[in-house]
Amino acid sequence: MAINLEIRLRRPNKIYYEGETISGVVHISSPTEIKHDGITLCMEGQVNLTISNKNVGIFEAMYNSVKPITLLNQFTDLAPSGKLPSGTTEVPFELPLICTKEPKVLYETYHGVFVNVTYLLKAEIKRSFLAKSVAKAQQFIIQYRPSQPPEKKTEVNFSISPETLQKTAKERISIPRFLITGLLDSTETCVTKPFTGSLTIHHTEVPIKSIEIQLVRVETCGCAEGYARDATEIQNIQIADGNVCPKVQIPIYMTFPRLFTCPTLITKNFKIEFEVNLVVVFGDDYLVTENFQIVLNRTA
C-alpha cells in the first residue's frame, strides 16, 4: 500500500524572516483507508560544525565547540490517532519562527563545507509496529530582513607588480616584469547584487594565458581552547582568456551563488567570511594571486 506524504508550504519560494509564521499543509494521499497512531510535525533549525581532517589532532580540545547549535526545535501534534479516508487529506499547520534559546537569533540558511545552517520541517504518520511509519522532511530558507545600504561605497584601488608581491629579493629575479592596476567598486556588498570592478594590463614581459576571479569562503570553528580555520573555493570565473591588449579596461563582474554564500557572520563558536582572489596566469604557467577580503550583507 503506497502512502504519499508531502509538506506543502504556502510560500512557493520557501523564504521566511525571523518573527514570521510558517504555514502550509501536510498532504497525504492513499488508495485505501489508513489507520494511524497520530500525525506529528517537527520544526528544526541547526548549525552543524565539522572539523576538517587536518585539524583532527585538536578535536578533543574543541569538542564543545563542534556540537550542533540548536536554533529552532518545535514539536506539534497535528492529529490524534485514528483513521484517514482513502484519497487525499490535507492537514493545515502554522508555526512561529522565533528562536527562544541562545543565541536567540535565526542565522541565514547557509550550505558550506565545515559550517552548515539548515532549517527543516519533518512530518510523520505514526503507525503500529507491523505497519511502518511514514515520514517526510522539507527544507525552508531563513533570510535576514534587508537593511538600509550604506550612504557611500568605498572604492578600492589596487596595483600588482613584482614589487608589490610578498617575495624575497632572490625570487624576484625570476618574476616577469608586469604592471596591473584596477578598481573594485566596493569590498562591502549585498549578497543579491554583483561584485564589480575593473582592471587594466599596462605591460607584461610574458604573455598572459588567463585572468580569473575566485570566490573563497573562510569558515572558522572554534572556541577559547582552539580553532580550525579552513578556506575553500566556491566558484571560479574567467574574465580574460589569452594575452589581452595592454591598456584596455577589463570588467570584473561576479554574482554570488545562492545558499553557498550568506551575509558575513561572526559568532563566539564559528565564523563565515569571504574573500576574492584575482588570479593571473602567465604563458609560462607562472601564477600571480592578489587577495581581497570582502564583507557581505543583505540590503534593500
TrEMBL record:
<dbReference type="InterPro" id="IPR028934">
    <property type="entry name" value="Vps26-related"/>
</dbReference>
<comment type="similarity">
    <text>Belongs to the VPS26 family.</text>
</comment>
<dbReference type="InterPro" id="IPR014756">
    <property type="entry name" value="Ig_E-set"/>
</dbReference>
<protein>
    <recommendedName>
        <fullName>Vacuolar protein</fullName>
    </recommendedName>
</protein>
<dbReference type="Pfam" id="PF03643">
    <property type="entry name" value="Vps26"/>
</dbReference>
<dbReference type="InterPro" id="IPR014752">
    <property type="entry name" value="Arrestin-like_C"/>
</dbReference>
